[in-house]
Amino acid sequence: MTRCPLDAWIEARTGVSGPDPAALRRWQIESLFKIAEWARAQSPLYAARLAGVNLSSRDSAALPFTTPDDLRGRAHDLLCVSQDEVERVVTLTTSGTTGSSKRIFLTGHDLESTLDFFRRGMATFTGPGDAVLVLLPGRRDDCAAVLLARALEEIGVRAVLSPWPCPPYEALRLAVREGVTCLAALPSQLAALLAECPGGGIARVDRALTSGEPVSDSLRLAAARAGIEVYAHYGLTETGFGGGVECQAHSGYHLREADILVEIVDPFTGAPLLPGADGEVVLSTLSRVGMPLLRYRTGDLSRMLPGPCPCGSPLPRLGPVTGRIVRSSGHIRIQTPTKGTAQAS
């Protein structure tokens, strides 16, 4: 089993040797407060929200949360750069998002950071000689699917970007014609492809990256029966698409630690929780200067998996998303099964 290649990338990006989990956390907290100082100086929303916060305390729990409502109603007030520096505005409703669309502003630096993560993350299970059929939605410049295809080509992997939309029969035809060895798809797309091939495999495909929706155990089993190993990705539009990816051990998501700080908090009180406890995933972007997000409440229910990974990485991983935290009219409820879960039999 190969150690997750994200570790070497994190070490190179942060300068933290190992990377040692405790030292990396200290680096992340320091980076968080540097970006908080920048945001307070540049963003109208953060200037007001952080006005009474002692940023020299280095206590992440002292920072107020950012919420999806901020991105729906006050996205421009989160901007820390001029509109001229924005290269991509994402107004996107995915199968994992409910309610009105959120607006995310990304600079060229943000997009390059995502490409960098995709290059290293995909190296976990692809390499020269592979051909990846990218079925993920969207074909606009700098959308997740296009960025992923570009990143694959840059590491010597042939990317086959399907038409969008792409019905299952067309995807199967492409997989055969192009000699595809790996898929990049929504779990629901993978389930539809497997349903077209009952009892058999999908051409030469033996791996699949799933993203955009949680992947169910039944889908993993159905894929395994077809000779396909599933590698799940966790990410949000809010993170600039990339967030975390499984390694060959399939023991949680190895996170994009050089760019993102992940916390798990009590969904009712907001208090930080210990590793292993179920709670709400809260994300902070550490390297994004255009539209930084500080302690963003994702609404995803998960937990941090403590201890080293069987692949050899010493870093904790994010566990699977097991539910959604829904806030409405002052009430909070936990919604399961998880959003957009695809099934296959």
Which terms summarize this structure?
345 residues, alpha/beta, Rossmann fold, 7-stranded mixed beta sheet, 16 strands, disordered C terminus, ANL_N_sf, phenylacetate-CoA ligase activity
What does this molecule look like?
By secondary structure, this protein is α/β, with parallel strands linked by helices. The chain has a single domain, classed as Rossmann fold, CATH 3.40.50. It contains 10 helices and 16 strands. The chain has helices at residues 6-14, 21-42, 44-49, 68-73, 75-78, 108-122, 144-154, 168-177, 187-196, 217-225, and strands spanning 86-92, 102-107, 131-134, 158-161, 182-185, 207-210, 229-234, 244-246, 253-255, 260-265, 279-285, 296-302, 304-305, 317-318, 323-328, 331-335. It is globular. The two termini are 29 Å apart.
> What is the distance, rounded to the nearest whole angstrom, between the alpha carbons of the first and last residues?
29 Å
Oligomeric category:
single chain
The major beta sheet can be summarized as:
7 strands, mixed
> What portion of residues is helical?
25-40%
Looking across the biggest beta sheet, what order are the strands in?
4-3-5-6-7-8-9
Round the mean pLDDT to the nearest integer and report it. 93
- Known CATH architecture: 3-Layer(aba) Sandwich
What name does the CATH topology carry?
Rossmann fold
Keywords: Ligase
Protein name: Phenylacetate-coenzyme A ligase
GO molecular function: phenylacetate-CoA ligase activity
InterPro entries: AMP-dep_synth/lig_dom, ANL_N_sf
